Amino acid sequence: MTKYIFVTGGVLSSLGKGITAASVGTLLKHSGKNVGMLKIDPYINVDPGTMSPLEHGEVFVTKDGAETDLDIGNYERFLGSSYLKSSNFTTGQVYSSVIERERAGGYLGQTIQVVPHIVGEIVSRIKLAGEDHDILVVELGGTVGDIEGLPFMEAIRQMKHDEEVAGTFFIHVTLIPYIKAAGELKSKPTQHSVQELRRIGITPQMIIARSENALPKTFKKKLAMSCDVTPDSVIEALDAATIYDIPVTFLRQNILKPIAKELELGELNPDMEKWDTLVKKIVQPKEKTIVGFVGKYLELKEAYKSLTESLIHCGAHLDARVEITWVDSEEIEEKGAEALLADCDSVLVAGGFGSRGVEGKIQAIQYAREHKVPYLGICLGMQLTLVEYARNVLGLEGANSIEFDENTPHPMIYLIDNFLDQSGDTQLRTHKSPMGGTLRLGEYPCDTKEGSLLREAYHGEKTIYERHRHRYEANPTYREALEKAGMIVTGESNGLIETVEIKGHPWFLGVQFHPEFTSRLQTPNPSILAFVKASLSAE
Q1: Max alpha carbon distance in the chain (Å)?
Q2: CATH 3.30.1330.60: does it fit domain 3-277?
Q3: Which residue in the list 344, 379, 410, 473 is annotated as catalytic?
Q4: Which residues 6+ apart lie within 8 Å of 281 measured at CB?
Q5: Given this chain, do its domains 3-277 and 285-537 carry the same CATH topology?
Q6: Which three-class secondary structure state does DSSP give residue 497?
Q7: From the candidates 58, 403, 498, 516, which is the catalytic residue?
Q8: How many CB atoms lie under 10 A from the CB of residue 324?
């Protein structure tokens, strides 16, 4: 039977519950345990797929094609595992399931209520995510006291007494504010948050205390006493130079000792030596390179979370700081690409949806191509390489993607009516299809071309597997003209164009997939790693 560790948050949001959960999971995995991860989101959206990146940050795509919360990305990057649809669910999904079952007569005419039906559905989903794992670490989104989180709190409270559950452990992440005028750290917000949890029926067994200042021993003792936990169960979580240092920081404070004792896990000795070495290279690297990151959701950097993290992973393996120069694609339209990218060693054009800032991205691609600057285009960044090449090399005036101009005379990027999805079923997509559920999502194979940068990056692999999140595809009608002019297709997936490169350019790669979704601290994505290497060697 599976044992469960529940991570809740108090006082306010954005305290780092996801990093806490991922760090605990990492230490347990490095101790030889089979660890599963689950993020529960109390919002009513079915998934974050149609939410604005400026509203919610990045949408992370799992191997099996689920659009999930960005915390799943943190779990994968920390634990080096691939998680599935079952590792994230929302209030919207829970209520949809219960209502569908009720409509189909599944409850035999009962009156459907939050308790037991909604709570029962939540419990069954948590148990599903825990199957085949020694331990499941569950992060509950939101803050204690939020009205939408109450059914989830009730569900995890009930699981303490569930005969099918081998053991539970509750971790509460909270804030310790420092009042500058008084020169004091304050425990009262934490005490109130724990009282709220206990009123619900949950007694936390560990406090993760987020603070900008170190906690004196006397303060930790007071906090332990007032929150009814043992002194060794108050773990300090100070701001760190990198999030990847958190597991090591927790380990120094013997975080696993109270967990192992309560869950009867025996002695745990995680081997974090390689991890620690990588962290040191992130904090004190020997070299530096500057990447011009061209995007349009720059008001919230979380919109590109996996991509910025993947650059950190590559830097750690190459002992280099990958410095990002953020370039707003709309600003390029006003000032020109050279004015904003001249000081960069390489150019990266990220994905995105909608026409805003597209012309700026095209100018950035033209600059990288003509000035022989290492270039990586991801998803839309790859599609626009075809548009730029068609306009400026093939001379096809008005060339565009039909996403931005339905009446373009040269649709370099188009919407195929149907394609085979992961299960081999035909999916239909039209302009009128709803935004949610019509994307090519999840992992697909890509056959690489011999002698290409792509195959070299993936150490000679003939077929690679990467994740997708897009609706539009490269139009094969123009393939022959592009290849004659020097733009070569070097990767294909079931007949669809996946990657392009340019003959005679030192390093230029456009990829339809999202390589950042498979990058991990200990195993960076090969195509992004090759790009950063090219950036480091750029003159």
Answers
A1: 75
A2: no
A3: 379
A4: 315, 316, 317, 319
A5: yes
A6: strand
A7: 516
A8: 17
Per the CB < 8 A criterion, the answer to whether 376 and 511 are in contact is yes
CATH topology for the 285-537 domain: Rossmann fold (3.40.50)
Active site includes 379? yes
Three-state SS at 297: coil
Neighbours of 22 (CB within 10 A): 28
Place of tokens 């991509």: 307
516 is catalytic: yes
Neighbours of 39 (CB within 10 A): 27
Note if 227 is an active site residue.
no
Q: 455 with 463: CB under 8 angstroms? A: no
* Distances from the Cα of 73 to the Cα of 186, 247, 272, 458, 500, angstroms: 33, 16, 21, 22, 27
243: left (phi over 0), alpha (psi -120 to 50) or beta: alpha
Q: Where are the alpha helices (DSSP H) in 52-134?
A: 53-56, 70-79, 91-103, 119-130
pLDDT by residue for the chain (539 residues), tens only, comes to 999 999 999 989 889 999 999 999 999 999 999 999 999 999 998 887 777 666 767 889 999 999 998 899 999 999 999 999 999 999 999 999 999 999 999 999 899 999 999 999 999 999 999 999 999 999 999 999 999 999 999 999 999 999 999 999 999 999 999 998 988 999 999 999 999 999 999 999 999 999 999 999 999 999 999 999 999 999 999 999 999 999 999 999 999 999 999 999 999 999 999 999 999 999 999 999 999 999 876 666 778 899 999 999 999 999 999 999 999 999 999 999 999 999 999 999 998 877 788 999 999 999 999 999 999 999 999 999 999 999 999 999 999 999 999 999 999 999 876 545 555 555 544 444 444 446 889 999 999 999 999 999 999 999 999 999 998 999 999 999 999 999 999 999 989 999 999 999 999 999 999 999 999 999 999 999 999 999 999 76
How far is Cα 292 from Cα 440, in angstroms, rounded to an integer? 28
Domain positions in the chain: 3-277, 285-537
Q: Which two tokens stand for residue 14?
A: 């954005």
The amino acid sitting at 497 is I
Predicted TM-score (pTM) of this structure = 0.91
Secondary structure of residue 411 in the 3-state scheme: strand
Catalytic residue among 172, 313, 470, 514: 514
d(CA 377, CA 385): 7
Tokens of 305: 């979370």
How many other C-beta atoms can be found within 10 angstroms of the C-beta atom of residue 484? Answer: 9
> What is the SS3 assignment for 149?
helix
Neighbouring residues of 410: CB distance < 8 A, sequence distance ≥ 6: 390, 396, 397, 398, 399, 400, 478
